[in-house]
Each structure stands twice: as structure tokens, then as C-alpha cells.
């Protein structure tokens, strides 16, 4: 995957594993010696057993243990459509050995003196907690605030930690408590020259980016990470057709278009697998009985509206009622 | 659990093993959470200057308003040195595919696509300019407090005049610290300038303070004949004096890599050891090392004085005189590192004169241990 560090796999020990919110556990992992890498915006790649086969999953580093720099804390949500990786992590008993990489930073926090805002939606909080901690320890001259959104209080991992750490600098918005965030108002309230870091569902990121551009702000000051798992519509089954290869594949809800092509033996180049790098983009010839749910952040809004390309690692077809949705593409 | 409390001594500890390996005399080790003087102020300007700080490739430059910037010297995309690129206002453009970064390290332009990859960035390191040096903090940015930069104020204090140079030493910085913390070598390396027999004949005291990471080595040589350089400098202030002097060297180390040496001579018996230096001349030899690798460092130095402060001639003579003295040290240090590398498996033998250097090594190792556990 797109990263400019080489993975350094190490045998680590699980030291704690505790439930901290609905479907979320905090898993502490001790390295043989303290990884020197920054943890802000970093994740570990971890080897997990899924259906008795080793697979690699990525989990954000929430913090480094202040009392032992060898220990990193991961926040892991068992998603409803989990393919087994997060459930396997949830079951690890203290003392278990796992293979993990050093922190891999794909969402770097760049300390500055500018006003700084951190916006977390749901489990996206795991990617922002360490940044928020650093902002608290070395506050930018322009100040910082943390905003944390969720559907319900029970689902909010690390809420107590964040409250203790940031006090009045933390704003909480909970849909079930009728305190949902008004995104345009939130963006308008960011001081001029603000740098925003956010992680959450694509719908949140889209709304913020739209408001950000509408406010005439520089797009580069809106920094975000997606886990590549959310879109404008729920994931559903669709069909992909490649006339040049005479190939038709059915993409079920639990698989990506890219994985479907790979499963059928088609040659597709891919790298980040979360809709960021754009190396897997392929030309779209036509769409039938549905619309493309562009879930990538590589194509610009204008490019997405033309439907000329699709990033098959994350993007899908949302079928009209009665479907099935079909996308005709080329694999050059 | 602390490694220092001894409770884990029976178990295999990879960190301990690693520290044992890195305290080998063949290769210097260093903490990352520290300020290192990466360059002299005049070395950094509106151009891209590559340096290594704590072994890390970093590119230095100044913004349009003059503030110094330190970015990782490797483009996020294909890792080529950004120093081969160009400055565009406050931003750096990579010289290979044109990707552009702000002084904070954020990608501000990516050719050939309409969006900017959200992870596109290079690390930006905390920078502070103080005492004519550009200091860079290679470790955890949240811990970078400019108040912890070692005091080297003599380099830009109105009451003092100072100037200096940079030496690219082909030896680990800990070998340079050893050199500066034991000045008995002056008698043998620097015979024509500042060395004399009194150095190895006089006694010295060594004190240390683990909490602040300081070591002090104090040596007084009373009623001696001044060595050639000091004879000349004393004559600048007291042209008629020909008699013996009281000479001092007070070496102050601040972990991990800075040494300020209070040096001088005064007319013998005029009270200098008790604090009255009015009948003498006083200088400060300012030294700070930036480890560029386990076996190399940038050695930034200056010589400061509080007498004849209006004389550019003395400023130039002192700077060039000390440069000549340090060239003698540099030759020995380079040869020492080469000899160490050619003699694998051998360790140093420590004499009593090495107490200062050994305390410095212990304080540095403690800093490294605290970072790694």
C-alpha cells in the first residue's frame, strides 16, 4: 500500500483488552522496544487470523502509554459487516502474541501555530485522539478545539478520556440526543486560516468539504482520512461488465469491485485500496439501472460528476429499485 | 517497569542488549528528544541547504520573512531530496515531479491530478534560532521547548565578541565530547599554542547533576608560565606584564551535545580563583555537536572574549587561531574513528582523566533509555 516506510514486522504482546463502548474495545500492544515513530495519524498493520487464514488489518493508534513508551493503544470497532478481523482482535487475551508493524503514518499531523480544529465522527475518533493529545501538549498559538460526533453516547469510544484531556475545548454532538452537528455552521465558525483534521464517514467528510469550499477556504487546509468503507448509499450487490474482456462479475455487498476483478483473475493495478492514490482508476463506459456511488477522494467533485472514471477499490454502483445495477468498464 | 531498578535483571531484555550494543565506542548514539544546532545562522538563507540532524536528512531554508524552516529532505512521493528542488515563496517544490510543500510540510500542489492526496506531507521539524545557531528538534514535536536550548549566550551577547566556524568531523560526536571534556590532550596536540606541562600536572575536579544533564570539569593552574597564545592575549590588555599567571579551564557539558568552556589567565595571585578576574583576560570556547551519523558529526564552535571587544584584528586572529587548534583535534579524531573501526571488538580503557567524558556518556545513555525503555 502507498506508504513511504518499509513495514517492520515485530512480535508484540497484548497487555490489555477492554470494552470501552458499544462494539469497541481498546487493545494495548507492547512492542519489544518503544517504536521511535510518531503515533499521531498512525496505524498499525496487524496480522489476524480470519477463517484460519492470516490476513492483515489496519487499526489506528489512539495513544502511546505515558508510563511505558513501548505500549501503544488501539481502538477497534467490530463493524456489523466485519469480515472477522476486528472480532478476532476483540477476542485476544492479555498475554497473547501478535505480529504488528511499527506505526505507519498515513494521516500526518503537522504542528503549526495556526488555529487548529479536529473533527471526529464515530470510530474516526481513533485516528484523531493522538493528534488532539499532541495539540493539547503543545497548543498552537491560534488555539485548537476538538469536536466529536456520534449517533449515540453508548457508541462513543474514549469519550471520558477526551473530556478529561480537553475539558472545554471538546464539543460533543449526539444525534440521538438531538444535538447533531450543523456542518455549515461549524465550518463558518472556524477562524480564518484554520487547519482542519477530520476522520469519519464519507457523508461527513463530503459535507465538510462542500462547506469548506463554499466558504472560499483553501482545500489543502482541510485534511482528512477515510477508512474507505463508507459512501453516500449503503453497499449493495451490483454487476460489472468488461466488454473488451468478455467478462461479467457479480460484486456482492461484502466485496469491492477491485476484489471481484481480482477474484475473476483480471489484471488490475491497485495500491492504497482506500480511494486515495488513484492508481486503480478505470474508465467507465456506461451505467445502467443505478448510479455510481463514488467513495474515493482521488477524483475531484467535477470528475466524479462526469462518471468518466471509477476507483474500483472503494466505489460501487447503487442500484435503482428493481435493479440490478450494472457498470460497464474497460480494463486497459 | 524501569530498566534501572534492577527487577528484570534475570530476563532477556532486547532494549538493554541494544543499548549495550550502541554504547560500543565504534558508534555514537544519541537521544532524539533534544535540540541540536544544525547550522550557523549564516548558513541558512533563501536557498535549500541539506543537513543531517541526529542522522535524519533535513533540508533547511528561510521563509520570505526570514524565519528558518526544517523539512524532511525526502519527497513523500519518490523520496528524492527536496534540496534538489526550488523555493517558491515560502514553499518548496520538488525538483523531480513538481510536488510542492508548505513550511509546515503540507502538500500544497500536486501536478497531474485535480485533488491532493490526503496523506501527502513531509515531516516538518521544530526550529528555533538562538545564540547564532539554528536548532532543530528531531524527536516528539510536543516536547520541543525552546527554553531547554543550552545557554550559549556569549555568542551574541553585547558584552562579548565572538565568531566561529563549522567542522564536518568524520568521527562520532561522543569522541568530540571526550576530547573537549579532557583538555590534558592540549599539552601534546596543541604544543605551539595553548598546551603546556602544567595541564597534566595540575589536579581537577569533576561534578555532575543528573537531573539537569550537566557535567562540570574544573582545573586551575596557579603561578604558571602562560602558554604562547595566552601570553599574547594577556599582553593585549596588559602590555607591560611579563610575570606568571593563574590559568583556568572550567568545562561545562550540557547533555547531549553542548560544551561551553570558561577559559582565561590572570596575573598570578590577583584573586582570580576567588572570583576577581579584573587582572586577567577571559574567553569562552563554545562547542555544540550535531550528530549526522554514528560516525560523523557537524561540529559548530565559536570563541568569545570580553576584552579588546572593539578590535576586529583580535576577533580574526582568535577565530583563525582556534580554527588552527581545532584542525589539529579534527585530524586526531578522524584518525581515532578510523583506528576504532579497524580494531573491532576492542573497548576503551578509561583513565581518571576520562571522568568528565564518562559522566557525559552515562547521562546520554540515560536520555536514550528514557526514550526507548
Automatic annotation (TrEMBL), chain A:
Its cofactor is FAD. The lineage of its organism: Bacteria, Bacillati, Actinomycetota, Actinomycetes, Kitasatosporales. Pfam families: Fer2 (PF00111). PROSITE patterns: 2FE2S_FER_1 (PS00197), FAD_FR (PS51384). Residues 7-110 form the FAD-binding FR-type domain. PANTHER family: BLR2392 PROTEIN (PTHR47354:SF2), NADH OXIDOREDUCTASE HCR (PTHR47354). InterPro entries: 2Fe-2S_ferredoxin-like_sf (IPR036010), 2Fe-2S_ferredoxin-type (IPR001041), 2Fe2S_fd_BS (IPR006058), Beta-grasp_dom_sf (IPR012675), FAD-bd_FR_type (IPR017927), FNR_nucleotide-bd (IPR039261), MRET (IPR050415), Riboflavin_synthase-like_b-brl (IPR017938). One of its GO terms (molecular function) is oxidoreductase activity. This is Flavodoxin.
TrEMBL record, chain B:
GO terms for molecular function: 2 iron, 2 sulfur cluster binding; metal ion binding; monooxygenase activity; oxidoreductase activity, acting on paired donors, with incorporation or reduction of molecular oxygen. InterPro entries: Cholesterol_7-desaturase, Rieske_2Fe-2S, Rieske_2Fe-2S_sf, VanA_C_cat. The keyword Signal does not apply. Residues 35-136 form the Rieske domain. It comes from the Bacteria. It holds the Pfam family Rieske. Gene3D superfamilies: Naphthalene 1,2-dioxygenase Alpha Subunit, Chain A, domain 1, Rieske [2Fe-2S] iron-sulphur domain. CDD domains: RHO_alpha_C_DMO-like. Keywords: 2Fe-2S, Iron, Iron-sulfur, Metal-binding, Oxidoreductase. The keyword Oxidoreductase applies. PANTHER family: 3-KETOSTEROID-9-ALPHA-MONOOXYGENASE, OXYGENASE COMPONENT, IRON-SULFUR DOMAIN CONTAINING PROTEIN. This is (2Fe-2S)-binding protein. It comes from Streptomyces fuscichromogenes. The lineage of its organism: Bacteria, Bacillati, Actinomycetota, Actinomycetes, Kitasatosporales. The gene is vanA.
Amino acid at each position: 500500500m502507498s506508504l513511504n516506510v518499509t513495514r517492520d514486522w515485530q512480535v508484540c504482546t497484548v497487555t490489555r483488552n477492554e470494552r470501552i463502548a458499544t462494539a469497541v474495545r481498546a487493545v494495548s500492544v507492547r512492542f519489544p522496544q518503544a517504536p521511535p515513530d510518531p503515533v499521531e495519524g498512525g496505524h498499525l498493520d496487524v496480522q489476524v487470523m480470519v477463517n484460519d487464514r492470516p490476513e492483515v488489518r489496519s487499526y489506528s493508534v489512539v495513544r502511546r502509554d505515558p508510563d511505558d513508551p513501548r505500549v501503544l493503544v488501539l481502538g477497534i470497532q467490530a463493524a456489523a459487516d466485519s469480515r472477522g478481523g476486528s472480532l478476532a482482535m476483540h477476542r485476544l487475551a492479555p498475554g497473547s502474541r501478535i505480529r504488528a508493524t511499527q506505526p505507519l503514518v498515513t494521516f500526518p499531523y503537522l504542528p503549526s501555530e495556526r488555529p487548529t480544529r479536529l473533527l471526529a465522527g464515530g470510530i474516526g475518533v481513533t485516528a484523531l485522539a493522538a493528534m488532539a493529545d499532541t495539540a493539547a501538549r503543545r497548543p498552537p498559538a491560534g488555539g485548537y478545539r476538538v469536536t466529536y460526533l456520534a449517533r449515540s453516547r453508548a457508541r462513543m469510544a474514549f469519550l471520558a478520556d477526551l473530556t478529561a484531556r480537553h475539558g472545554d475545548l471538546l464539543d460533543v454532538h449526539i444525534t440521538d440526543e438531538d444535538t447533531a452537528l450543523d456542518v455549515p455552521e461549524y465550518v463558518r465558525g472556524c477562524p480564518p486560516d484554520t487547519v482542519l483534521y477530520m476522520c469519519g464517514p464519507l457523508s461527513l467528510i463530503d459535507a465538510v468539504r462542500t462547506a469548506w469550499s463554499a466558504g472560499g477556504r483553501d482545500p489543502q487546509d482541510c485534511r482528512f482520512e477515510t477508512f474507505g468503507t463508507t459512501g453516500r448509499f449503503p453497499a449493495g450487490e451490483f454487476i460489472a461488465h468488461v466488454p473488451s474482456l468478455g467478462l461479467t462479475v457479480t460484486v456482492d455487498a461484502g466485496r469491492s469491485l477491485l476484489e471481484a476483478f481480482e477474484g475473476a483473475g483480471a489484471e488490475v493495478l491497485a495500491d492504497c485500496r482506500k480511494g486515495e492514490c488513484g492508481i486503480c482508476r478505470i474508465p467507465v463506459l456506461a451505467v445502467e439501472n443505478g448510479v455510481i456511488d463514488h467513495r474515493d477522494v482521488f477524483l475531484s467533485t467535477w470528475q466524479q460528476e462526469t462518471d468518466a472514471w471509477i476507483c474500483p477499490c472503494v466505489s460501487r454502483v447503487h442500484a435503482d429499485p428493481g435493479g440490478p445495477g450494472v457498470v460497464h468498464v474497460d480494463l486497459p | 517497569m524501569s530498566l534501572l531498578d534492577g527487577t528484570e535483571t534475570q530476563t532477556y531484555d532486547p532494549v538493554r542488549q541494544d543499548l549495550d550494543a550502541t554504547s560500543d565506542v565504534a558508534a555514537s548514539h544519541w537521544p532524539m528528544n533534544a535540540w541540536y544546532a544544525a547550522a550557523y545562522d549564516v548558513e541558512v538563507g533563501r536557498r535549500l541547504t541539506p543537513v543531517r540532524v541526529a542522522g535524519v536528512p533535513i533540508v533547511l531554508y528561510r521563509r520570505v520573512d526570514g524565519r528558518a524552516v526544517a523539512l524532511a529532505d525526502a519527497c513523500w512521493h519518490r523520496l528524492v531530496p527536496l534540496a534538489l528542488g526550488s523555493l517558491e515563496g515560502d514553499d518548496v517544490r520538488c525538483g523531480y515531479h513538481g510536488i510542492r510543500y508548505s513550511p509546515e510540510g503540507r502538500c500544497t500542489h500536486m501536478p497531474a491530478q485535480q485533488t491532493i492526496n490526503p496523506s501527502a506531507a513531509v515531516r516538518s521539524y521544530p526550529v528555533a534560532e538562538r545564540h547564532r545557531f539554528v536548532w532543530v528538534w528531531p524527536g516528539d514535536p510536543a516536547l520541543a521547548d525552546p527554553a531547554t536550548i543550552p545557554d550559549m549566550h556569549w555568542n551574541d551577547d553585547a558584552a562579548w565578541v565572538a565568531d566561529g566556524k563549522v567542522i564536518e568531523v568524520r568521527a562520532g560526536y561522543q569522541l568530540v565530547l571526550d576530547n573537549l571534556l579532557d583538555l590534558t590532550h592540549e599539552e601534546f596536540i596543541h604544543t605551539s599554542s595553548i598546551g603546556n606541562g602544567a595541564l597534566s600536572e595540575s589536579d581537577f575536579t569533576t561534578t555532575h547533576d543528573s537531573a539537569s544533564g550537566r557535567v562540570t570539569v574544573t582545573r586551575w593552574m596557579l603561578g604558571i608560565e602562560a602558554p604562547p597564545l595566552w601570553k599574547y592575549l594577556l599582553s593585549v590588555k596588559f602590555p607591560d606584564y611579563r610575570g606568571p599567571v593563574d590559568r583556568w579551564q572550567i568545562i561545562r557539558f550540557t547533555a547531549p551535545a553542548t560544551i561551553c568552556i570558561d577559559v582565561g589567565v590572570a596575573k598570578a595571585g590577583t584573586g582570580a580563583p576567588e572570583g576577581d578576574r579584573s587582572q586577567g583576560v577571559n574567553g569562552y570556547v563554545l562547542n555544540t555537536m550535531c550528530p549526522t551519523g554514528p560516525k560523523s558529526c557537524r561540529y559548530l564552535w565559536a570563541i568569545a572574549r570580553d576584552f579588546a571587544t572593539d578590535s576586529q584584528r583580535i576577533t580574526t586572529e582568535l577565530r583563525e587561531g582556534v580554527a588552527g587548534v581545532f584542525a589539529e583535534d579534527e585530524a586526531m579524531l578522524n584518525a581515532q574513528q578510523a583506528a576504532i573501526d579497524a580494531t573491532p571488538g576492542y573497548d576503551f580503557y578509561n583513565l581518571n582523566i576520562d571522568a568528565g567524558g564518562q559522566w557525559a556518556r552515562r547521562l546520554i545513555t540515560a536520555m536514550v533509555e528514557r526514550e526507548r525503555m
